Amino acid sequence: MLASTLTRQVTRLSSSSMVNSTSSVRSKHSLPDLPYDYNALEPVISAEIMQLHHSKHHATYVNNLNVAEEKLAEAVAKHDVSSAIGLQGAIKFNGGGHLNHS
């Protein structure tokens, strides 16, 4: 029953104007600028740690979320329910990481 429900949802999404219309293509997520300088939290957190955390750690969540969403769009376009389901963990993990850091 769950598989048939997901198949219908993927079919509906792939035939909707959201997927097929170029005017409603979702933009990629981007790494937001920090509202303060990297050294603003010194001496508690060093500028080096802040720069590393923001430009590497947070950026990895953003990049991996974009990759997962691209793969999801491909899976939906191909009516590949199994792949669409398999990507949900990566989307939740990386989307959550991006939101928590933003």
Brief digest:
The chain is built from 5 helices and no strands.
If you had to describe this structure to a student in words, what would you say it looks like?
- With 102 residues, the protein is an all-alpha fold.
- The chain is built from 5 helices and no strands.
N-C termini distance:
37 Å
**Which outline best applies?**
elongated
Residues in helices, as a percent range = 55-70%
Order of helices and strands: HHHHH
Q: What do the pLDDT scores average to?
A: 85
How many β-strand stretches? 0
Assembly type: single chain
Count of DSSP-assigned helices: 5
Q: Which structural category fits the helices and strands?
A: mainly alpha
Largest β-sheet summary: none
- What is the alpha-carbon Rg in Å? 18 Å
Give the amount of beta strand, in percent: under 5%
Low-confidence stretches: 16-23
Keywords:
102 residues, mainly alpha, 5 helices, 0% strand
Give the SSE layout:
Layout lengths: L1 H14 L1 H4 L26 H31 L3 H6 L1 H14 L1
Helix pairs in contact: 3-5
